[in-house]
Design a protein that fits this description.
Blueprint: H1 57-68, H2 76-90, H3 99-126, H4 134-144
């Protein structure tokens, strides 16, 4: 359960000075005087500290951001190098790729990975966990029936 602040309970006794009426000196009523606020915390350089969000808030914001975007998430250059390396090992005769073919492979790979993560997350939630584990990916691959289990 989350922590919450509770107001301070003040018991008033009959005949105590706080219930006897206004204070004797004018302008010293503590209920109506403005409180002094503490200065915002500063770091060693004298700048104001950055705002910290509650755990999970930034993650949910990033999820919404990436769900709205249509851009590819894997950087193109490392992906192309990996494709060329794999084709060099499996089929040394193929040395040239068109840009459209590499883009199609990257889109297909990202689509496969996104759906695999979605299925693995459902497996983790089904197991009453929030953390993705290797066994969630293995179960998602096995239940999905897509590709070889390597």
């Amino acid at each position: 359960m989350a922590r919450s602040k509770h107001p301070v309970s003040r018991k008033r006794e009959i005949g105590s000075p706080s219930t006897a009426g206004p204070s004797s000196t004018p302008g010293t009523n503590t209920r109506t005087s403005p409180r002094k606020r503490a200065a915002p915390p500063e770091d060693s350089t004298g700048r104001k500290k950055a705002r910290r969000f509650r755990p999970g808030t930034v993650a949910l914001r990033e999820i919404r951001h990436y769900q709205k975007s249509i851009n590819l998430l894997i950087p193109a250059a490392p992906f192309i190098r990996t494709v060329r390396e794999i084709t060099g090992n499996l089929a040394p005769g193929i040395s040239r790729w068109t840009a459209e073919a590499l883009l199609a492979i990257q889109e297909a790979a990202e689509d496969f990975l996104v759906h695999l993560f979605e299925d693995a997350m459902l497996c983790a939630i089904h197991a009453r966990r929030v953390t993705l584990m290797k066994k969630d990916f293995e179960l998602a691959r096995r239940l999905g029936g897509k590709g070889q289990p390597w």
